[in-house]
């Protein structure tokens, strides 16, 4: 994609973003713009909803209908928007804290409803904006400013969580795999139903500094080394998965989507109301 | 309180929570998101039946935080939206109410109060959430708080809540209580067109629209690609600091407080010659009304102010009180909440303000108010009016 | 129209009615039906109820105030009529009555303690309901009794209210219950019986 085409989607007056040098969030944004351009979505028809944290700043820099919401609630706001205007394409940019800690409840219920939202989880495995604290996604043993001796907590596998909760489309990739990221996001945006894309992204400022991966390239290599393109069911055991996280599109299945079901419900309710008044 | 009865209309026996639902639908509410909680659940149940018939949206969310968030999202997608809850759920909604306040999102939050704090007594009544309704979320913020006294009033005040929220782009909280929510009364509901309905103002054009400059509003997808944020923001919705943050916060506060005389609704009885004034609101006003009747029959010059709007507080009403008034009694189903505002509004004046609180989950009775006034005035039937203290 | 029938035999206006019993005896429904009938009569009415632990165990109550005037305070302060369908309810609410209160109780459920010589209508309400088809309609039998004795609402309005508030498949049963209640009270209409 050419620079001019790319900038068409950006709010240049809001650049540069607040993101640190070496942060991977810009790569996700670039991939997202590529996917939206590839699908020729009209900017007026796209609503981009963000949560709180570094990823939550995404709505500010992209020229769509944008909403920067509260911590963890982006999916609930987006659910309201989508139900009110099903014809709009609603994309949610969340952090791993948004999705798995404070907003974990909203995440599992959005999956369960299978409402047509594209949820992109910017997973940097740490709380970046607040200064590098432990996240539910921080791998066991890794350090953060609230787990200096290495965390004793096991980390969430967000894709398994999404699969278990019923999302129609579930995928994981990394910013290291830029073209795969574009392809995955394109398919997620095409999917009718709740789609989850977990994008692993480096935070050299906090995760890197706390875990001897100070240089951005070191962190990118870490992401590459920590992941393996593999189907979830092919992973021999939990221990193996902890070592190398599978990536790929784990699920892309069509099932009745929430706003379509709701529209059917309205027709049934109207029919019932008419027949009872006759 | 004018008892207007249309001749042609047949009265119906309806419950407070039903009246709230019908009021919302009458006002054009087409989006409801909520979570079950006693004593508000009948509102949600009726919404779930009624909204789909007209292609309105009903959704039962996973909790109250999600409910208010979905309501705000729907409002920005152009809907008149509401949720209803009770104490514990209302506390969970405070985060979203703050967001709605700073983003100037029109929406309605109904709180049917029950005995608290915490789980308290879910089926017992109280007026214990007055301060939470006014000050519940963090930071200085604009909000309008309304209440209602009887079933038809619930309908009317729900319509008013939507009107104010649309007109001023502000979250409006309607405080009901367990007794009012569950009580049934004969009511004649207005026909479509009988009440004035206010819609959010549209700007002349989408091009160059500034979403946080004034009361004009455009929803998402209408051609103006702006940003909405809970951060301090400028007129375009992008982060602002210092002077601009200060100016914007004052603007959103002033849009409510400068209009206090339009927003602060109340009813009055015998205000012209009252020496003792009962300042009341919500369900308690009904006991006060009977007490006034009884006391007047005894010859006690008592009057009544029934506040329909609790916030912004009608300071002007107390500033204008005549010299004839010497005693104020504030009966509430709490241990002293709105009475603080009354005291603030009359400070520096030669007036005694007394509070009558009840917190056993039952209503204050007319007899309790009569006795409180006898005690307050120190005489059963004052011959020469009440002594100045 | 015979307005004589609809006039409450209590000259009191408003008239305050308390329906009490145990949770599950349908007292809230009875209150709603009575209130609905008063609306049919063109009266002002307020119906309130007591929920909570009381609704599952022990005494439960539903209150109705009927008036031609505006009703301000919505709850019963002094009952003009007290219906009791359980011993617990009787013990709880009897002390709140006075000598003017019309007392109606289920003789099959309640054994009044030594009374103060007060007039009490004690009738086999639940037994009558069971004979009609089901104990479940004791609430509607009681309504029939109460209205026959007190003339609170037009009998036709009470029928209309039953039809409105009772699900279709139980309508006939409830109509019979109402009739049975009215019949049960018939011999007592012009005399007062003292119990205990």
From TrEMBL, chain A:
<protein>
    <submittedName>
        <fullName>2-oxoacid:ferredoxin oxidoreductase subunit beta</fullName>
    </submittedName>
</protein>
<dbReference type="GO" id="GO:0016625">
    <property type="term" value="F:oxidoreductase activity, acting on the aldehyde or oxo group of donors, iron-sulfur protein as acceptor"/>
</dbReference>
<dbReference type="GO" id="GO:0030976">
    <property type="term" value="F:thiamine pyrophosphate binding"/>
</dbReference>
<feature type="domain" description="Thiamine pyrophosphate enzyme TPP-binding">
    <location>
        <begin position="62"/>
        <end position="198"/>
    </location>
</feature>
<dbReference type="GO" id="GO:0045333">
    <property type="term" value="P:cellular respiration"/>
</dbReference>
<dbReference type="Pfam" id="PF02775">
    <property type="entry name" value="TPP_enzyme_C"/>
</dbReference>
<keyword id="KW-0560">Oxidoreductase</keyword>
<dbReference type="InterPro" id="IPR029061">
    <property type="entry name" value="THDP-binding"/>
</dbReference>
<dbReference type="InterPro" id="IPR051457">
    <property type="entry name" value="2-oxoacid:Fd_oxidoreductase"/>
</dbReference>
<dbReference type="InterPro" id="IPR011766">
    <property type="entry name" value="TPP_enzyme_TPP-bd"/>
</dbReference>
From TrEMBL, chain B:
<dbReference type="GO" id="GO:0016491">
    <property type="term" value="F:oxidoreductase activity"/>
</dbReference>
<dbReference type="InterPro" id="IPR029061">
    <property type="entry name" value="THDP-binding"/>
</dbReference>
<feature type="domain" description="Pyruvate flavodoxin/ferredoxin oxidoreductase pyrimidine binding">
    <location>
        <begin position="23"/>
        <end position="243"/>
    </location>
</feature>
<dbReference type="Pfam" id="PF01855">
    <property type="entry name" value="POR_N"/>
</dbReference>
<feature type="domain" description="Pyruvate:ferredoxin oxidoreductase core">
    <location>
        <begin position="274"/>
        <end position="369"/>
    </location>
</feature>
<dbReference type="InterPro" id="IPR033412">
    <property type="entry name" value="PFOR_II"/>
</dbReference>
<protein>
    <recommendedName>
        <fullName>2-oxoglutarate synthase subunit alpha</fullName>
    </recommendedName>
</protein>
<dbReference type="InterPro" id="IPR002880">
    <property type="entry name" value="Pyrv_Fd/Flavodoxin_OxRdtase_N"/>
</dbReference>
<dbReference type="InterPro" id="IPR050722">
    <property type="entry name" value="Pyruvate:ferred/Flavod_OxRd"/>
</dbReference>
<keyword id="KW-0560">Oxidoreductase</keyword>
<dbReference type="Pfam" id="PF17147">
    <property type="entry name" value="PFOR_II"/>
</dbReference>
<dbReference type="GO" id="GO:0006979">
    <property type="term" value="P:response to oxidative stress"/>
</dbReference>
<dbReference type="InterPro" id="IPR009014">
    <property type="entry name" value="Transketo_C/PFOR_II"/>
</dbReference>
TrEMBL record, chain C:
<protein>
    <recommendedName>
        <fullName>Pyruvate/ketoisovalerate oxidoreductase catalytic domain-containing protein</fullName>
    </recommendedName>
</protein>
<feature type="domain" description="Pyruvate/ketoisovalerate oxidoreductase catalytic">
    <location>
        <begin position="23"/>
        <end position="181"/>
    </location>
</feature>
<dbReference type="GO" id="GO:0016903">
    <property type="term" value="F:oxidoreductase activity, acting on the aldehyde or oxo group of donors"/>
</dbReference>
<dbReference type="InterPro" id="IPR052554">
    <property type="entry name" value="2-oxoglutarate_synth_KorC"/>
</dbReference>
<keyword id="KW-0560">Oxidoreductase</keyword>
<dbReference type="InterPro" id="IPR002869">
    <property type="entry name" value="Pyrv_flavodox_OxRed_cen"/>
</dbReference>
<dbReference type="Pfam" id="PF01558">
    <property type="entry name" value="POR"/>
</dbReference>
<dbReference type="InterPro" id="IPR019752">
    <property type="entry name" value="Pyrv/ketoisovalerate_OxRed_cat"/>
</dbReference>
């Amino acid at each position: 994609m050419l620079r001019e085409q790319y900038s068409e989607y950006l709010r240049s007056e809001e650049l540069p973003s607040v993101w640190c040098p070496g942060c991977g969030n810009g790569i996700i944004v670039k991939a997202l713009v590529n996917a939206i351009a590839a699908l020729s979505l009209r900017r007026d028809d796209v609503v981009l909803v963000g949560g709180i944290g570094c990823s939550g700043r995404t709505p500010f820099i992209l020229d769509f209908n944008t909403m920067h919401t509260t911590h963890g609630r982006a999916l609930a706001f987006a659910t309201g928007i989508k139900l009110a205007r099903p014809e709009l394409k609603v994309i949610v940019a969340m952090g791993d804290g948004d999705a798995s800690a404070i907003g974990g409840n909203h995440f599992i219920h959005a999956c369960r409803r299978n409402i047509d939202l594209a949820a992109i989880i910017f997973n940097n495995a740490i709380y970046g904006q607040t200064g590098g604290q432990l996240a539910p996604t921080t791998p066991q043993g890794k350090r953060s400013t609230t787990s200096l001796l290495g965390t004793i907590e096991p980390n969430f596998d967000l894709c398994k969580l999404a699969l278990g909760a019923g999302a129609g489309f579930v995928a994981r990739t990394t910013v290291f795999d830029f073209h795969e990221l574009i392809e995955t996001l394109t398919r997620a945006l095409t999917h009718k139903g709740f789609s989850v894309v977990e994008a692993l992204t480096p935070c050299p400022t906090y995760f890197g500094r706390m875990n001897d991966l100070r240089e951005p390239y070191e962190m990118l290599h870490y992401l590459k080394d920590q992941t393996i393109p593999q189907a979830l069911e092919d992973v021999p055991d939990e221990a193996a998965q902890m070592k190398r996280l599978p990536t790929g599109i784990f699920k892309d299945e069509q099932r009745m989507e929430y706003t379509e079901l709701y529209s059917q419900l309205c027709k049934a309710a109207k029919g019932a109301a008419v027949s009872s008044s006759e | 309180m004018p008892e207007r009865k249309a001749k042609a209309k047949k009265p119906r026996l309806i419950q407070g929570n039903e009246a709230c639902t019908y009021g919302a639908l009458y006002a054009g509410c087409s989006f409801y998101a909520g979570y079950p909680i006693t004593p508000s659940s009948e509102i949600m149940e009726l919404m779930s039946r009624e909204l789909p018939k007209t292609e309105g949206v009903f959704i039962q969310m996973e909790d109250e935080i999600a409910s208010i968030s979905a309501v705000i999202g729907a409002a920005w997608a152009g809907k008149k939206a509401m949720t209803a809850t009770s104490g514990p759920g209302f506390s969970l909604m405070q985060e979203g109410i703050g967001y709605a306040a700073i983003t100037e999102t029109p929406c309605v939050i109904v709180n049917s109060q029950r005995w608290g704090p915490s789980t308290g007594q879910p089926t017992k009544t109280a007026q214990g959430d007055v301060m939470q309704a006014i000050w519940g979320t963090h930071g200085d913020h604009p909000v309008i708080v309304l209440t209602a006294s009887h079933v038809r009033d619930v309908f009317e005040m729900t319509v008013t809540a939507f009107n104010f929220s649309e007109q001023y782009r502000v979250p409006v909280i309607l405080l009901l209580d367990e007794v009012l929510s569950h009580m049934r009364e004969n009511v004649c509901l207005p026909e479509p067109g009988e009440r004035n309905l206010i819609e959010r103002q549209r700007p002349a054009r989408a091009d160059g629209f500034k979403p946080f400059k004034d009361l004009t509003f455009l929803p998402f997808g209408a051609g103006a690609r702006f940003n909405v944020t809970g951060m301090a923001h400028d007129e375009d919705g992008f982060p602002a600091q210092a002077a601009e943050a200060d100016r914007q916060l004052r603007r959103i506060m002033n849009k409510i407080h400068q209009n206090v005389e339009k927003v602060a609704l109340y009813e009055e009885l015998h205000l012209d010659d009252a020496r003792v004034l009962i300042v009341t609101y919500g369900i308690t006003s009904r006991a006060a009304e009977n007490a006034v009747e009884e006391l007047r029959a005894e010859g006690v010059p008592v009057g009544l102010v029934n506040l329909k709007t609790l916030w912004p507080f009608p300071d002007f009403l107390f500033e204008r009180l005549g010299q004839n008034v010497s005693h104020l009694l504030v009966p509430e189903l709490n241990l002293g909440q709105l009475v603080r505002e009354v005291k603030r509004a009359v400070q520096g004046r030669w007036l005694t303000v007394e509070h009558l609180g009840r917190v056993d989950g039952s209503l204050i009775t007319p007899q309790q108010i009569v006795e409180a006034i006898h005690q307050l005035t120190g005489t059963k039937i004052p011959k020469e009016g009440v002594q100045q203290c | 129209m015979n307005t004589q029938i609809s006039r409450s035999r209590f000259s009191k206006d408003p008239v305050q009615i308390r329906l009490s019993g145990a949770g599950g005896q349908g007292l809230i429904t009875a209150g709603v039906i009575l209130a609905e009938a008063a609306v049919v009569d063109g009266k002002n009415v307020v119906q309130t109820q007591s929920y909570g632990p009381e609704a599952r165990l022990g005494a439960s109550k539903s209150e109705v105030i009927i008036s031609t005037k505006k009703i301000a305070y919505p709850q019963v302060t002094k009952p003009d009529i007290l219906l009791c369908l359980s011993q617990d309810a009787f013990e709880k609410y009897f002390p709140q009555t006075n000598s003017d209160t019309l007392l109606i109780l289920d003789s099959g459920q309640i054994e009044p303690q030594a009374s103060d010589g007060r007039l009490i209508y004690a009738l086999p309400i639940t037994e009558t309901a069971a004979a009609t088809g089901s104990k479940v309609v004791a609430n509607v039998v009681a309504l029939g009794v109460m209205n026959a004795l007190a003339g609170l609402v037009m009998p036709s309005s009470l029928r209309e209210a039953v039809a409105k508030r009772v699900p279709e498949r139980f309508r006939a049963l409830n109509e019979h219950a109402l009739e049975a209640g009215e019949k049960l009270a018939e011999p007592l209409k012009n005399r007062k019986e003292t119990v205990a």
